[in-house]
Every structure is written in C-alpha cells, then in structure tokens.
Design brief:
The protein is an alpha/beta fold. The chain has eight helices and 13 strands. The protein is globular, with a radius of gyration of 21 Å. The N terminus is likely disordered.
Length: about 300
C-alpha cells in the first residue's frame, strides 16, 4: 500500500524521496528493494533496516534521490508498486521536503510549546504548524509572537464531547497529519484516539506509575530519586501506555531542590518531545505491535 500525504503531488524540487516499508521477514528483501530502486535510477542517500525475530517482521527506511527529473508519484507507483506488492509489503513513499501539517495542543505550561515553535522557526524541526489548541487562553500571546493561529476550546465534563467534535472538525478542516500534546492536561476520549490512530504524540514525566497526580517532581524529591526523565509516545485509549518513541533521563542529587527538579524536568520534557516529533516527521518511526522500531 502506498500513501500520498495531503497537500503534495510527490514532485520534489530535488527529486529526493523517503521510502518506508514493512513486511514478513525473509531472505533477499534488501536486494529486491535496492535493485528496484537502481532500476529507476535512484541514488541511495541513507538506508536503515531491522529484522525483529520476535514478530518475524522486517522494517526498512530508504532516503533516495532520483537522477531522472520531474518524476511524479504515479510513475513511482508504476515502477515500484508491483515489486513491493508481490512481496506483500506495506509501503509508503513521500517527498523528503514534505512537512507534516501539525496541530499543537497545550494547557498552561509553556515550555514544550515554546521549544517546538522555536525549533520550527529555526528550521531544525521539519513540521508545518498550522495551529495551537488550548483549553485555556494563557498562551495566546506566545502563539501570536510565533504567528501561529490560537484556538481556545475550554473543557468541562459537560462539554467535553462537543468540544472534541469541534477539535476533530479543526483537524479535518486544516488537513492535520499530526497532533502534538505539548503538556495538554486533558485526557482525550477513546473515540478521538481511535479516529486519529498513531497520529497523536504525547509527552509526560517518567515517574509513572510510581508518582501520579499533582506535583510529581515534589513527590520524587520526597522519595530522594536520583534519576528523572521523560517519555514521548503515541496516544492510545490506554492512558500513557501507547507505543514509546523517545525517552531521556537526567541525574539528580540530594542538592537539587524541588524547584530545581521541576526546571530540569521541563528541559528534559521539551527535548524528548521535540526529538519524537522530528523522528515521526522524518518517517523514522515504525509500529511493531505495542512497541516501535526507531531509526535515529
């Protein structure tokens, strides 16, 4: 199966593309794929592969450049599709310059939002941020400074279902490909998660399940922890248990105050979330059951 992302005809200015595929593992797969690419005059810039012995699945990502100019999506399908389909592969080809249209969701904490928008402005995070959604108006000025539309959708127990419909209409209307929860402190419904499978990335501290609820860093301080960290994962209906994309830790000592732990934790959260979004945007993340294969 070949998917074409919205708002692109797959004609790249530099004729550079990214091929991702997965299939049942077996001999000769790499030879088949590279041979097919060579047949259409492709120059391979980067190739990563993994064979999972537990699931007997094969995963591959190829960044390639075509020497032939002006090659369009249907021509790539005609050239590569029959070979890959004969081998039972699930595959996707996108122009390497394509930036996923991204909606960021946030509540009142600004550290992850600011880090994401800064990286986008600096050109080091390949996403197209089409809007910010929040259940509070607090961060509207930050979004305005970055020239990103800001949408306030207050959430109460009574209006949650109707507001999620508004959110879904916004996702569809803006042709959103990726939703990023940048410390959005509301639990998404099971229905919304099902409608956007593996298109939502969340970030949280890595103290779960030990320190739940309010002030987890203060709880960690009281217990004298020596490591703090953050986890970025795809959102599923199982709260904070979706396939993990990226994690990081930082060492702390008895000299760290609760406020110092909070500050360090926010730095780690910002870095981990941005890494996860970049890995997803660059098509480096593959689902493998309840876990992921990540070509960093």
């Amino acid at each position: 199966m070949l998917g074409v992302p919205m708002n692109t005809t797959m004609k790249s200015n530099n004729n550079q593309f990214i091929l991702t595929l997965t299939c049942k593992d077996g001999p000769g797969i790499v030879a088949e794929v590279t041979g097919a690419l060579a047949h259409i005059g492709a120059f391979i810039n980067e190739l990563a592969q993994h064979s999972d012995t537990d699931t007997n699945r094969f995963f591959m990502r190829v960044d390639f450049t075509l020497q032939k100019t002006q090659l369009l999506g249907h021509e790539l399908i005609a050239a590569l599709g029959p070979i890959f389909e004969r081998l039972g592969m699930e595959f996707n080809i996108v122009a390497s310059h394509h930036k996923p249209r991204t909606l960021i969701m946030v509540s009142k904490l600004d550290h992850c939002l600011n880090h994401l928008l800064h990286r986008v402005r600096a050109g080091s995070l390949p996403i197209d941020v089409v809007g910010v959604v929040s259940n509070h108006p607090d961060l509207a000025s930050m979004a305005e400074w970055y020239k990103v539309p800001y949408h306030v959708l207050p959430i109460t127990p009574e209006n949650k279902a109707s507001q999620e419909k508004v959110l879904l209409n916004l996702v569809n209307g803006l042709h959103v490909e990726l939703v990023v929860l940048a410390r959005y402190m509301q639990v998404l419904s099971e229905d919304l998660c099902a409608r956007l499978p593996h298109r939502i990335i969340n970030i949280h501290h890595s103290f779960l399940p030990s320190f739940k609820g309010a002030k987890p860093y203060h709880q960690a301080y009281e217990r004298g922890v020596k490591l703090i960290g953050a986890t970025a994962h795809y959102v599923t209906s199982d709260l904070d248990e979706g396939p993990i994309i990226e994690q990081e830790t930082a060492r702390v000592t008895h000299g760290h105050t609760p406020d110092a732990l909070v500050a360090l934790g926010r730095d780690v959260e910002s870095i981990v979330l941005t890494r996860a979004v970049r890995l997803h945007a660059e098509r480096r993340v593959f689902l493998n059951g309840n876990k992921t294969v990540v070509f960093s």
